[in-house]
Amino acid sequence: MQTHLLGYPRIGSDRELKKACEQYWAGKIEADELLEIGKNIALHNWKIQQEAGIDLIPCNDFSYYDQVLDMTLTVGAIPERYQEIASEKSEIDLYFAMARGYQNDGLDITAMEMTKWFDTNYHYIVPEFQKNQEFSLFSNKIIQEFINSKQTGINAKPVIIGLLTYLLLGKEKEEDFDKLDLAQKLVPVYIDILKELENHGAEYIQFDEPFLALDLNEKTKETYQLIYTEIRKQFPNLKFIIATYFEGLKDNLSLATSLPVDVLHIDLVRSPEQLDEVLHIIPHNLSLSLGVVDGRNIWKNDYKKSLSFIEKAVQKIGSERVFVAPSCSLLHSPFDLDSEKNEEILSPEIKQWMAFAKQKVQEIVTLKKLASENPDYSILQELAENRKIIESRKTSTLIHNQNVKNLVNSTTGQHAQRKSPFKIRKKSQQEILQLPLFPTTTIGSFPQTKEVRNWRSKFRKGELNSEQYDTLLKQETERTIRWQEKIGIDVLVHGEFERNDMVEYFGEQLAGFAFTQNGWVQSYGSRCVKPPVIFGDVYRSNPMTVYWSEYAQSLTKKWVKGMLTGPVTILQWSFVRNDQPRSLTCKQIALAIRDEVNDLEKAGIRIIQIDEPAIREGLPLRKSDWQNYLKWAVEAFRISASGVEDATQIHTHMCYSEFNDIIQNIADMDADVITIECSRSQMELLNAFADFKYPNEIGPGVYDIHSPRVPSKEEMLKLLKKAQAVIPAQQLWVNPDCGLKTRHWDETEKALIAMVKASKEASEEF
Ligand code: GLN
Ligand code: ZN
């Protein structure tokens, strides 16, 4: 039996890589220094695994920005617009130019697109393919990292994005061709890489092929067979591992087990049932890597459960053919639980249930020892200790709250149902709200200036007391209210100055959430996030936002919109408990948000927005699972929104608005008003709503807040006209694409003044 990892976090135990990259971009350190820091992180990661006793240690899992971009540079798929940089600049500068765009020396080149890595919160850089795309070995990063590992006395296992997965991750930049047809052109480059690796003494190669666990068409399946047969022919002696993760193999089971490779890795955290299926048909010359330790979450492994998988596999195929591993790369886990030293932030009782990357490495090694013929006494003690901890979590009063469970159990369909249908609600709302045609509003946040962030950090450090902090925030809120009144916005917001982050802010006030000090996970490039940990039953003990909304409303005769984050988004952007279904945790959050919505209404807030930007990204990877997810996700939203009177207007907001395939579900959410992102697509995204004859009100964003560029009134008016052409005017709102938190005040002022003018003109012309 062997142990291995699919990959290790690379941001560094103290986010050294983030800091070094940002210093390099700011011109504060030289490239050599950056490269040295990167090399040391990789080295440090290898040492951790070596000392723990991992058999097969990965290399090329390190990256200065993103592993997919690394592969793009490796195979020389450099888009035309970077040619000048490619010929004049160093490899690392070209690399960062592709990742981040390049504005210098009279050049202005856009970055490559970025998108989510499967259903994680990690973003990769999307490869761009042309019809006549050529590939050639351009960067020798993979080989260099292997050589580095050898020099430290490790015969590492290079981790390479599989050829098919690499192509499938990319985007065709021209019409009339299929990126799959590029596979044959890519084979020679893979062969070049493998030749070099073999020459330098590599034994094992890991190809990441997560697409094998997704829905595939026939052509893709055939290409998989073809390509791997071809590669195998050239390298009879290398040992190939195919890594699948994030889903089960399902209908690709026979394809995956028939590929001419040596080891197949499967994710038994996401899809435990596939073990039996795989063992049933596994050919005698294929070994199996069991992904038993969760690479996507922060909970301690349940040894007994993992051992049952391992023992089953050993019984069927023998221990020589079994590998023990985490479910996926540990890229998605924070670095080291030992650096959580502040007991006030993370209590020891909760901490004992957790494991970060470094601890997961140890778990893998321990599992192998436990699965051996005669585990020694100390290892058996570890098993007993693990049982105790797992049991303590099952019964802990920190986690389990009977009131919450009773409340969830007594929730009925009624809770997810507004009192009357939209048509009737609309009338009551109009009577009270008296809004004009094309009402204007914003999505919630106003610029979080340096000062605002500074106040917060001073408050946290105790340099401002809560009274002083409160006064400053109130001043900022009042200024924002006055300013919105002055330029004539119809529905105002308080500006969200009191919030650090739209999930953390609520998590900090809800029971059942814990936070870490250093639980950073890479989101993209140098950006890391520190997701809250939902460890127990969630409930709200006190109002969370009423204070600020009530204050803002007291300042003005205009309507102020209450601002909340929805249950699905809170769930999606946290580490969640693994002892109950996500749907149940989501329902608990929904009930807590519902309490808040009801309290806002009681406080006189008549318009309440429940943001759900993450509803779409929560979609399962397999289409067959979509409806089940959408059913509970939509229900959770409805539970949170349905406690109010007809006359109270519920808004929701979503950032990514490609809703063609789920428009029915979006309509089922039954928000009175939905604001969406539309301007970058020139209102094209609105077509899904138009074709569906979406019945409720919509605010298609008329300008892109992601850019500092100030749009003109004419531009926005044009977009509004475009919207009017497909959606009845009585249904339309006018607003930006998203919150204004990242913008500066001067841009914001100019843009919103023009936006209000556009709305006025549109209604005059109507
Ligand atoms: N209300 C939030 C804001 O304006 C919404 C942010 C989001 O959609 N991501 O900041
Ligand atoms: Zn948004």
From TrEMBL:
Reaction catalysed by this enzyme: 5-methyltetrahydropteroyltri-L-glutamate + L-homocysteine = tetrahydropteroyltri-L-glutamate + L-methionine
GO MF entry, a single one: 5-methyltetrahydropteroyltriglutamate-homocysteine S-methyltransferase activity
Catalytic residues of the enzyme: 706
Enzyme class name: transferase
Pathway(s) where this gene product acts: Amino-acid biosynthesis; L-methionine biosynthesis via de novo pathway; L-methionine from L-homocysteine (MetE route): step 1/1
One Pfam entry name: Meth_synt_1
Co-factor binding comment: Binds 1 zinc ion per subunit.
Residues involved in L-methionine binding: 443-445, 496, 611
Cofactor(s) the protein requires to work: Zn(2+)
Domain named Cobalamin-independent methionine synthase MetE N-terminal: residues: 3-316
Family membership noted in the UniProt record: Belongs to the vitamin-B12 independent methionine synthase family.
Family annotation (HAMAP family): Meth_synth
Name of the featured protein: 5-methyltetrahydropteroyltriglutamate--homocysteine methyltransferase
